[in-house]
Amino acid sequence: MTIANAFATGVRIRVVLFLFCLNALLYMSFSVLRDDLRALAAYHLYHSTSNTTSDDLRGNTVASHIIEDIAPSPVASIETPEPEFEGKANATLVFLARNSDLEGVLKSMESLETHFNHRFGYPWIFLNEEEFTEDRVKSKTNASVQFGLIPSRHWYQPDWIDEAKAEEGRNRLKASNVIYADSVSYRNMCRFNSGFFFQHPLLQPYRYYWRIEPDVEYFCQLRYDPFDYLKEHNKTYGFTIALEELPQTITTLWQAVKEFKEQYPEYINPNNALAFLSDNGGDTYNLCHFWSNFEIADMDFWRGEAYTKFFEFLDSRGGFYYERWGDAPIHSIAAALFLDKHQLHFFNDIGYQHANIMHCPQQPDYLTGSCTCNRVLSIDVILVYRGTTERLVLNGDNIRTTSGRS
Question: DSSP for 174-194?
Fold first, then answer.
């Protein structure tokens, strides 16, 4: 009797399991059929007005094979509306790139569109010393895209530069294994970004810009407009990373800056951020600068009298070619000296990476789940781990300096 009961119980269990599996199978089958029917309906409704394919709608389902043989219905024709963007500021996204940078350009565009511009729709402007021959960039955005050719006088090494002296400087840096030591094109780029990009005709209608470079990555969903933030809070220059410049590349830069300060004291803001640049009241330069491959800033500052005089003064020294003056220290020194320090803004909530250096927001931005970067690898954390701190610390709207290296 016990054996018989056990056998009966086993049979009942098997029956229950069989029925359960059968139900699950039937449910999945009906789900697939339901999705196929929805895909088919969506096809009839939208196929005539979009580029959507059957594979986009459902993949390799039964319905997707049926769709291929069905003509679009003219009755369901609907015009695709123009995208509505949230960006209202007088601003643009600026991209200096060569044709050979295409893959890196597409990567950067996709990242910024995903994390910001798909909602705000700011126009893209691409600048190149040659005709930009690749139109695939237009497929990465619904915003407008323009291509601009850089005037030769703004790009190539000026005739008045002593080439023998410039070559000697390049060889000296090459012997020291300095990056871009013997690259003239890199020097052209630094000079262009320092003094000419904001003069390009395509940029004249705009006040604010966001500088983008190939092979950069963004990590956080930006739910506000940084251009509006600058305007509403009277900010002029925004950055994410501050580093030290290579001293071999700017051996005479600070001396030139000191001479400019002496000749044009009227341009120095009394509430400046000199303490970010110097540990001894301006006697020497501590090499700190904002990493200018990321900039969100006001071009009216670069177009203004103080910066125009400053760039012309430095350019006449030939340091872009005799040494390797970068646009990062040039921009940083000007912003720190000519602006009120409260006009500088640290975009702490924008996760950003260029090359192997990354800024990842810490609390509270990271904890909201809107950032995908590894905050342990952030340059901010690495600096603290090494027993150093950023020289520029923002506490609300206040900028103060701290001990330690930038």
Answer: HHTT-TTTT-HHHHHHHHHHH
Strands 145-149 and 124-128: parallel
The DSSP call for residue 137 is G
In 3D, which of 177, 175, 114 has the Cα closest to residue 141? 114
> 289: which strand partners?
243
Residue in 295, 312, 323, 390 annotated catalytic: 295
Q: How far apart are CA 317 and CA 322, in angstroms?
A: 9
Question: Which residues, in sequence order, are bridge partners of residue 148?
Answer: 127
The Cα–Cα gap between 211 and 203 comes to 12
Q: What tokens does 383 get?
A: 């600096």
What whole-number distance in Å separates Cα of residue 154 and Cα of residue 157? 9
- Mean pLDDT check: name the lowest of 59-73, 139-153, 337-351: 59-73
Tokens describing residue 109: 């565009």
Dist CA 366 CA 356 (whole Å): 20
3-state secondary structure 97-113: CCHHHHHHHHHHHHHHH
- Residue 160 to residue 334: CA distance in whole angstroms: 25
**Residues sharing a CB contact under 8 Å with residue 185, sequence separation 6 or more, in sequence order:** none
Verify whether residue 129 is a known catalytic residue: no
**Residue 234: left (phi > 0), alpha (psi -120 to 50), or beta?**
left
The mean of the pLDDT values for the chain is 81
Domain ranges for the chain: 2-76, 151-401
Are 219 and 352 spatial neighbours (Cβ–Cβ below 8 Å)? yes
Torsion angle defined by CA atoms of residues 217, 190, 304 and 93, in that order, rounded to the nearest 10 degrees: -30
What pLDDT score does 54 carry?
31
**Cα of 2 vs its chain's centroid, Å:** 75
Is residue 227 pLDDT above 50, yes or no?
Answer: yes
pLDDT(141) > 60: yes
Q: What is the pLDDT of residues 182-193, one digit of tens each?
A: 999 999 999 999
Cα torsion 103, 106, 109, 111 to 10°: value is -80
Q: pLDDT above 90 covers what percent of the chain?
A: 68
CATH homologous superfamily of 151-401: Spore Coat Polysaccharide Biosynthesis Protein SpsA; Chain A (3.90.550.10)
